[in-house]
Amino acid sequence: MKVVLTGFRGTGKTSVGLILADRLGLPFYDTDAMIERRAGMPIPEIFRQHGEAHFRALEREVVAALRTAEGVIGTGGGAVCDPANVADLRRHGRVFLLTAPPGVIVERIAGSDRPGLTDLAPEEEVRTLLLRRKEAYLGAADACIDTGRRTPGEVADMIVREQGYGNVTAREDAKTRRPERDALLERFGLSGLGAMIDRNPGLMVCAIAGNPCAHSRSPLLYNRLFQHFGMNYHYTRFEWPDAGTIVRLATLLPLKGLSVTIPFKTDVMRHLDEIDEHATAIGAVNTIVRCGGRMYGHNTDWLGVQIPLAHRRGGRAAVLGAGGAAAAAVYALRTLDMDVTVLARAPGAARGLAERFDCRWGGLEEFKGGDADVVVHATPVGMEPDTRSLLAADDLERGTTVFDLVYTPPETPLIRAAREAGCETIPGTEMFVHQATEQFRLITGLAVTPELVREMLA
């Protein structure tokens, strides 16, 4: 058994870890203490003589040495900011994030000889670093426990009692909610998932939420990645016509993350606790991270558009569509300093989206191939089993870059037409690959390369 405790300084990792190790009959590994032994000097001296970069290198070596360890591991406050550390900590282990309010943390670490990591006052430094590390903390964790009003013994008891269940604070009423859970799973056609969770209490669940979503390749990708990283996770599909019902099911399961697709990217936002700046600006969420009973919304679609089109910075772009995917595309293109025109069947929808990002707009019939260096198709037209294309080869100019965000089939009717016209083509699989690398990091804290994602999808 490997149990990992992460979190900011002062959240109780060492005190809880010592008690927990004793109760589980396991050794306790304090990575900071191991670093000091390796360096032959206390951590403040490491910082003074060699700086933070040297400390982080030592930390990486120590964490790597614990990759296959059995025991309770207490990490340094910034350890999980390094995805390489997360990969070693997560392998065949359970990661608990210990949290506490900033004021409590400041009280607990007052008088420490540890040097500050910024020039800010103590409480301001704590708030700043907590915000900076938030995504890393939440992503790397399987469960979150607030230690602010709990003693170390109480926290250790919770982990002993609840070890292996994703939402620690919800376990007490899990049994009473099981009938509702099982009834919803049956309605979703997922009765086997409940049995899987009951057989394996440590199992964490992720899913794609959409209607339809049977075409999605996310389950294939994620389950292969989970196996690759030695994680006790399972990814499935939540196909249902109502976002609220999907979110309700999510709260009844040991669920860590959701990929959100058509038609819920906007509607799901009203069910979330926090939404990041990118998703807020776009007005759509495609990624939900759940920890400590809270749901955090993100959007990674825009990166799936931005990265493959970085070589077209400053060009002219036409976006076909005005929904959530189109909004992500416009946001991405504007970050590349492109002159964007939004075109849609409903000119009013095109106008609404364009005005949010200071773009031009019009109806689809106004498209002219010579007016665009880049064409981004952001509607469902052409998605299997649909064989239509909004544009024909005659509508396009040679040398134009055509990016079809539809990725099933890999070669859509629009991509075939664009190739016939002599255009540079980017299939929707590229958007999927690049947004998935970021989505996987947000949900698990693990960094994957586009090359590994493509390999897993092959």
From TrEMBL:
GO terms for cellular component = cytosol
Biochemical pathway = Metabolic intermediate biosynthesis; chorismate biosynthesis; chorismate from D-erythrose 4-phosphate and phosphoenolpyruvate: step 4/7
Q: Which keywords annotate this record? A: Amino-acid biosynthesis, Aromatic amino acid biosynthesis, Kinase, NADP, Oxidoreductase, Transferase
Catalytic reaction(s) noted: shikimate + NADP(+) = 3-dehydroshikimate + NADPH + H(+)
> Which residues carry out catalysis?
265 (proton acceptor)
Which residues are recorded as binding NADP(+)?
277, 321-325, 405, 428
InterPro entries per the record?
Aminoacid_DH-like_N_sf, NAD(P)-bd_dom_sf, P-loop_NTPase, Shikimate/glucono_kinase, Shikimate_DH, Shikimate_DH-bd_N, Shikimate_DH_fam, Shikimate_kinase/TSH1
EC number(s)?
A: 1.1.1.25
Give one GO biological process term: amino acid biosynthetic process
Q: Where does shikimate bind?
A: 216-218, 261, 286, 301, 407, 435
- What Gene Ontology molecular-function terms does this entry list? kinase activity; NADP binding; shikimate 3-dehydrogenase (NADP+) activity
What residues does the Shikimate dehydrogenase substrate binding N-terminal domain cover? 208-288
Assembly notes? Homodimer.
UniProt lists the family membership as follows: Belongs to the shikimate dehydrogenase family.
User: What is known about what this protein does?
Assistant: Involved in the biosynthesis of the chorismate, which leads to the biosynthesis of aromatic amino acids. Catalyzes the reversible NADPH linked reduction of 3-dehydroshikimate (DHSA) to yield shikimate (SA).
Protein name listed in UniProt: Shikimate dehydrogenase (NADP(+))
Chain's gene name? aroE
